[in-house]
Amino acid sequence: MTAFNIVRFRVKPGHEQKFIAAHRNARLGLKGFRGGALVRTGEHTFCIVGEWASFARLVNARPQMIGMLDGLREHLEDLGGGLGLTDPVSGEIVVKLKASTAAKKKPRGKAKKAKRKQRR
Predict the structure, then answer these.
(1) In the chain, % of residues over pLDDT 90
(2) How many domains does the chain have?
(3) Predicted TM-score of the model (pTM)
(4) Shortest CA distance to 85 belongs to which of 25, 51, 56, 44?
């Protein structure tokens, strides 16, 4: 069953571009990873959202994800409240939300061509 992981980060001021580049250039080859997104949620805060083929695949990839995190620690600030550098959550999908469909446009009638006076 499809699973997702979401991790929240706070990046040190001036380190945002390096943090973004590290994610843009990451090529981990994680089995079961379907893709994801790095989302800027504030001036210095980001979340990464990953989609996985199964929760088991996500769990199996945790050591590699921690390895990537180890390479990013110099760019991160403590989130406070005893959380440390990250606030991770993960789980299996329980409801898949469908995208809304745009309202169909009514077909427009053919524009009438203005009659031109014939020159004689």
Answers:
(1) 66
(2) 1
(3) 0.76
(4) 44
